[in-house]
Amino acid sequence: MTDGIYVGNADPDALADRGWLLGHFKPEGDARHSTDVEIKWGRHPQGDRRAAWVRGEERTALLVLISGCFHMEFPQRTVVLDKQGDYVVWGRGVDHNWLAAEESVVLTVRWPSIAGYAVP
Questions:
Q1: What CA–CA distance (Å, rounded) separates 20 from 83?
Q2: What tens digit of pLDDT does each residue of 31-51 get?
Q3: Residues 64, 66, 70, 76, Cα dihedral to 10°
């Protein structure tokens, strides 16, 4: 990539950074480098669950269901995404976890992309 354009496929590209396709963790000069936003392509087998709750989140996030059935868990409620295009948005400071109730594909966008956070 020398012209500021990157063409790829989410499935193989997602393997490099645990699903994250775009964000501060991509090299400077790469079209996928951004400090404004992060984008993740997530493929999750049935029963896949995040290992631990995210606490004290400093970013806002949007998660869109592409296929499957995906549960977003928050301290006061669980949101079930089961129709293609279902989505949920949560803000800074909202603790969360997730569970793939069925084999699922989700797209997550979060902002800003904060250096110092490890790619989860």
A1: 23
A2: 999 999 999 999 999 999 999
A3: 10
